[in-house]
User: What shape does this take?
Amino acid sequence: MMDSAGSGAALVISRRRAAARTQPVRAGHAPFSTQGSTFQISAAYSAMQSAEGLLMFAVGSALTCAAALLAIGLGRRVLRLHVDILCGLVAGMQTQPAALAFAAEQAGSDLPSTGYTSVYPTATVAKIILAQILLSV
Assistant: This one.
């Protein structure tokens, strides 16, 4: 049997959830509801709505694609590496285990893992150092 304090607490919680669902959306914030909880998108979403944020996203995307294409081009033409190894190499450059899993599944072998493991440690350390440099500027 439930006591009066327990039922009162449940009533307060359900009222707060109902109030959270009916509050208006503030500018730059979009609510998401997941099983009764409300989350708001961080400042990154707000930044993407400005022209400067979109430019930063476009430049980042272009640099990522350029680095991947350069690695594939040099690896294939200069170093004469197998395509499966190059796919793992690009996944390791971007430190993306999901990309490695996809490349290994498509290749049907462990060759992408060879490329991944050859560059992953260096890419991880480089990311840490570059993040520290960017934060100090």
